[in-house]
Structure formats: C-alpha cells, structure tokens
Amino acid sequence: xxxxxxxxxxxxxxxxxxxxxxxxxxxxxxxxxxxxxxxxxxxxxxxxxxxxxxxxxxxxxxxxxxxxxxxxxxxxxxxxxxxxxxxxxxxxxxxxxxxxxxxxxxxxxxxxxxxxxxxxxxxxxxxxxxxxxxxxxxxxxxxxxxxxxxxxxxxxxxxxxxxxxxxxxxxxxxxxxxxxxxxxxxxxxxxxxxxxxxxxxxxxxxxxxxxxxxxxxxxxxxxxxxxxxxxxxxxxxxxxxxxxxxxxxxxxxxxxxxxxxxxxxxxxxxxxxxxxxxxxxxxxxxxxxxxxxxxxxxxxxxxxxxxxxxxxxxxxxxxxxxxxxxxxxxxxxxxxxxxxxxxxxxxxxxxxxxxxxxxxxxxxxxxxxxxxxxxxxxxxxxxxxxxxxxxxxxxxxxxxxxxxxxxxxxxxxxxxxxxxxxxxxxxxxxxxxxxxxxxxxx
Length: 442
Prior knowledge:
By secondary structure, this protein is of the alpha/beta class. It has 2 domains: about 10-160, no CATH class; about 165-430, no CATH class. Helix content is about 15%, strand content about 35%. The protein has 2 helices and 34 strands. The chain has helices at about 5-55, 60-70; strands at about 75, 80, 95-100, 105-110, 120-125, 135, 145-150, 150-160, 165-170, 180, 185, 190-195, 205, 210-215, 215-220, 225, 235, 270-275, 275-280, 285, 290-295, 295-300, 310-315, 320-325, 325-330, 335, 345, 355-360, 370, 375, 385-400, 405-415, 420-425, 440. It has a 20-stranded parallel β-sheet that branches. Strands 4-3-5-8-34 form a 5-stranded antiparallel β-sheet, covered by helices on one side. A 5-stranded parallel β-sheet has the order 18-21-24-27-30, with no helix packed on it. Helix 1 (about 5-55) runs antiparallel to helix 2 (about 60-70). The longest helix has about 55 residues, at about 5-55. The termini are far apart.
C-alpha cells in the first residue's frame, strides 16, 4: 500500500469519527432540547394541577386530588397526556400531595390534618415507574440511552381556612351516631357533616323518602344505607381523621342567685318578659303562653335533683317563645319541644357565647328533643335568619316533627333526624371557604 493510499484511509477513518462525534453532539443537543421542552410542559401541568387542587383543599381532599388529576390529563408532555396518580395514601413522594405550607419557613409538609392543610403539591413526571413512563429519546439509542427521566413540581396555597362543619356527631363508637330515617329532611347547603364514630355504620341513612342535602360527610368509620335512600349528590368520605369538639374550651356559665320567680312559666296569655339569670325550676311553656327573653344567659335546671330525665326546658301546646341575643344553658334536666307555636331565638353576637343558642352541661347526658310543629328559627320578621348553634356535647339531639327549623349548626354526642319538617342547617350556606383565592408558591 502506498503512502497516498494509507493517508486516504486515515482521512476516511478520521472523517467517520468526526462525523460520529458531530452526530452525537447534534443528537445530544436535539435530545436535550426535547427534554427541556418536555420539562417545560410538565412544569406548566404541575402548576395548573396544583392550583386546581388547592381550590378544593379546604373543602374536600378527595375533590382536591380529583381536580388535580383531571387537570393533568388535559395536558400533553413527550407525546402523551400527563397521567397523575391521585396518591390516596398521601405519600410524600407521590404525584398529588395534600399538605401544609409554612409561609414563614417556606417549607411544605405532607399532612391530611384538615385543620391545617392549606396546600397541594403536584409532581408531573415522565419517569420510570410513573403512569406515563419515561421519556423516549430520539438519538439516545445510538449511545444505548433509550429513555430519560424528567419531572417537575408545583405547589399552590389556598388563602383562608377550613370550611366549618355544619354538624358534628362527637360519639366515637356508636353505630348510629349520625342517623337520618323515615321522612327525615336535612339540608346543609354546601356544608359538611363530621361523624367521629369509628363504626362502619356511624352514619346511617334509612328509608326511601328521606332527603339529605350536603356538600360532604366525613366519617372516621363509614356509612350504612337501608332502604335505598338517594344520596348521590353527597360526597361520602369514609376513614377520615377524627375532629375534636370545636367548643370544648368554652367555659360553662356559673349560676348566681336564683331569679324570682324561679321558673319561666307565665300565669296568663299576656306576653311576659323575663331577664337573664339562674332559673332552678327551668322553663315550662304550655298552651297559650307567650314569653319574651331579654338578651343574656339563661341557666336552667328542672327543679328536681332526683329525676334527671325531667325537662329543664319544655314547650308544649300552642306556646310561643321569642328571644334575641340569648344563650340557654341546660345545667340539669332534658329538653323537650313538642309545641305547635313558633320559636324565634337568636344567639349572642359577641362575647364568650357568641353564636351559641343552646349549651348543655358536659356532664348532662339527657336527650334534647326538638319535635315541634311550629316554626323554629331566628328573627320573626326574617324566617330565613337562623337560630344559633345547638351544643349538646354529652347528649343526643333529635330534630323531628313537622315544623321547619333554621339552625346555624349542631354539635352533639349523637344526632338523629326524622319527621316531615324541613331542617335547614344554615352554616353551609356561607359557601365553600378558603379555596376561592389560590396562588403558586413554588
């Protein structure tokens, strides 16, 4: 072989090597650009999905995950629609993570504690092990690199706080802690019911004629349906965290000297006005009685320390009770409302007992029965203005009868709903709270 031929062969080899290197660099540049472009798409998807989830996070963690997954599925990255795993167990390394973002420390912590969750983190991926798989490279296979892992995350925070529960059944074990049956009608608007019972039937809905309207029911245990009730519009969430009594720290009022008379019980049909104070013989209204309560705290007992079941608060017949800015404390005895007359009560609008209408002693387990046939509401001139919160932490509250009721909220050991009257729990009508304003934080 001549020198010229050897040089020509060397040039061909060098040229091949150079071309291979050039192709490699070009391929690397193209694949790098493709990865960068895909990463930008994943970033856009993660941000949008996090925002969609944060809009729901104060309201429903299930809805937050669903919204994030749905938004992700509308975006493409690397030739495929982005698939997000809803991550129901809330793994901190999952695709959709519910958590708390500390604005001061600028840290995100995965948690499902409904009292503090304020953020949603979304990791959009094209990686090994993700639902969409890794990103296939165009030139990578030349160098035995077929795929690449690309992922981006976004965190969105919701301004505000958790939507307050409209009703809370505090009993931790009862199989019918929250029980609606027969023709029972309860409307929470967008509000939520919390059932702390761990029983698989802690919330029980029985009958084909009941009506239950709510945004959601969150249960430590689960629910039971008997008689095929229509519950499709309600978001039923089993195995959710326990929620503590939100009024547990409200102090019980201390009785002073007994009032004179010692019982709220007018002697004739004329309207009788009473002042706040301690009534050791309670309130007893019968047919034709008309009572007006001036603003303040009314402490009631049933007058018989040996018979706890006797009522401290009783309304029967066509009796009428009105009181604005009042709180009724049931120290000893039960509550029975079976009257046909109207009741118009509003709670204090300030102070330690703000928004509380009835407060039964924490050691008083006697039931409260509101089974009237008249209207039970707030101001008589505005029937949609509700009465305040019914707080019976150790007792069952029954709301039945044929009369319509407008109540702000119920917090009780157990809650039972029946009767043809419509029971409106108005706290939920304030709408969904906390998630109306959201913004990206990372």
